[in-house]
Amino acid sequence: MELKIAVLRGGRSAERDVSLRSGAQVEQSLRGRGHDVTGVDLDRNTWDVLRDGNFDCVFNALHGRLGEDGTVQGMLELLALPYTGSGVLASALCMDKARAGAVMTGAGLHVPEFEDLEVEQGVSADVVDKLVARFGLPLVIKPVREGSTIGLTIARDADQVASGLVLAARYDRRVLAQRFAVGTEITVGVLATPDLQVLPTLEIVSDNPVYDYDAKYTAGKSHHIIPARIPEAARAAASKAAGHAFTVLGCSGMGRVDIIVDADGTPWLLEVNTVPGLTELSLLPDAARAAGVEFGDLCQRLVDHAIARHQHHVGPGQAR
Fold it and tell me: Which fold has domain 114-179?
């Protein structure tokens, strides 16, 4: 059945360029399925465009602030439009790495110890010394509410800790300082449309010292290995932890859980992404393909789930 679908992409976050690429991939895929697709770059006119567009569904391909933090989800709820992905609460919670980490820790999952700091003007030597004494070096520093490793520093001495705090504070006044987890870097995709499906473990090998923005989005600078080269017991533990995190945080539709697996096979959860990248180089589409879910099928499943969820939510006879 042909549907009229709006694909939200772009926006004003630091991940705008990636979102444009994700949106373009989604648009192409859905058009290939015979749908009437309109790309919508998030701006001050978006409310009017969506309100008056008579869309059957909104596919959210917005990454970062406004698109992944519950803001646009709240707008779509007010407009009574079906939309893909997680709802308001889960989106806001997962975007806040500190609060999501606290919830996952409370649920018995392994999360590297961290501190949520308010950084405004300058960083004192006393603060740096206390962080180094508590967490050791190297130390992970990143904005609490950003993605795609934007503003991330792996600090290997006190000077880098200080400069890393300043860098992260450019993106968010709240900064996360977190113990560095040593091990194999993997990611685990999760689909819930509505039944939970944990995708195969994917190991990330980066040509850069850190799997940073450049490594993520430049062809040839990172490699995806499926399944991850870790013992079978560790793969099972990571998959179980990813599914548990997705569920306890209230996620829906799709997500991607970033994990470090240590030498003992323990999965240390770093964060949960509710609108993971959907570009030609992104992790979730690769993991889905390994599970037999091609990109077009993935997009269609998310749309179908969004519409069914909306109809269930508003009740019979009330859907737009």
Answer: Dna Ligase; domain 1 (3.30.1490)
Tell me if residue 15 is catalytic.
yes
At 217, the pLDDT band (50, 70, 90 cuts) reads low
Tokens 């690429």 found at:
21
Q: What is the pLDDT of residues 273-316, one digit of tens each?
A: 999 999 998 999 999 999 999 999 999 999 999 999 999 876 54
Pick the catalytic residue: 273, 282, 286, 301?
273
Sketch the domain layout of the chain as residue ranges. 4-84, 93-110+182-297, 114-179
CATH class of residue range 4-84? alpha beta
Give the other-Cβ count within 10 Å of 278's Cβ. Answer: 27
Q: Is 271 a catalytic residue?
A: yes
Q: Which is nearest to 226 in space by CA: 126, 293, 134, 301? A: 293
Q: One of 15, 96, 185, 203 is an active-site residue; which one?
A: 15
pLDDT at 224 over 90: yes
Question: Would you call 258 a catalytic residue per the annotation?
Answer: yes
pTM above 0.90, yes or no: yes
128-152 confidence digits (pLDDT tens): 999 999 999 999 999 999 987 899 9
- Look up the CATH number of domain 93-110+182-297: 3.30.470.20
Report the Cα–Cα distance between both ends of the chain, in Å, rounded.
Answer: 17
Q: Are 178 and 112 in contact (CB under 8 A)?
A: yes
Q: Considering the candidates 64, 87, 147, 277, report the single residue annotated as catalytic.
A: 277
65 CB neighbour count, 10 Å cutoff: 21
In sequence order, which residues have a C-beta less than 8 Å from that of residue 82 and are 6 or more positions away?
Answer: 56, 57, 58, 306, 307, 309, 310, 311
- Catalytic residue status for 273: yes
